[in-house]
Amino acid sequence: MDKKRVLFLCTGNSCRSQMAEAFLRHYGNDNFEAFSAGLEPKPIHPYTIRVMQEIGLDLSQHKSKSVNEYLGKVLFQYLITVCDDADKNCPTVWPGVSQRLHWSFEDPAKFEGTPEETLNKFRQVRDLIETKIKQWLAAQQQAL
């Protein structure tokens, strides 16, 4: 069976889409190839790297990528937007995409609070993304 390519898309490719890519790589076995990109890429947020390291996933070598690196160049079976802004502004026609999904997650980088409160917000969003990836993979297995 060929690996299915999945692109996680958000605005900055600095938090949520990076987490989703890492979780799919971790849990997706050999069935999926995970990628992430942003409409307006920004450097990966230090708290993204930190909260993923807390659970044993190293994103320290990851870099933000523009959606233009993939559009028209790589065929994806799934395009999953992980922020409302990307869902609204993503190209509506994407060659080869058989399923476009939208998973709305709060942007932890926009959270305002103390450093500890902000770190906790990143953890909360990380855990929600991990749960969603696991649920989605279970549904994919049932569909086979």
Query: How many domains, in number, for the residues?
Result: 1
Q: Ranges with pLDDT <50 over ≥5 residues?
A: none
Shape: globular
Name of the CATH class: Alpha Beta
User: Biggest sheet, open or closed, and with what strands and sense?
Assistant: 4 strands, parallel
Second CATH tier, the architecture? 3-Layer(aba) Sandwich
Helix content: 25-40%
What name goes with the CATH superfamily?
Response regulator
CATH topology: Rossmann fold
Strand content: 15-25%
Labels describing this entry:
single chain; 15% strand; alpha/beta; 144 residues; Rossmann fold; 38% helix; 4 helices
Chart the SSEs and their pairings:
Blueprint: E1 4-10, H1 16-27, E2 32-38, H2 46-53, E3 78-81, H3 84-89, E4 99-102, H4 115-143
Describe the structure.
α2 (46-53) crosses α4. A four-stranded parallel sheet has the order 2-1-3-4. Helix content is 38%, strand content 15%. The protein has a single domain (4-139), classed as 3-Layer(aba) Sandwich (Rossmann fold), CATH 3.40.50. By secondary structure, the chain is an alpha/beta fold. The protein has four helices and four strands; from the N terminus they run βαβαβαβα. 35% of the residues are buried.
Short note summarizing the structure:
With 144 residues, the chain is an alpha/beta fold. It is built from four helices and four strands; from the N terminus they run βαβαβαβα. α3 (84-89) links the parallel β3 (78-81) and β4 (99-102).
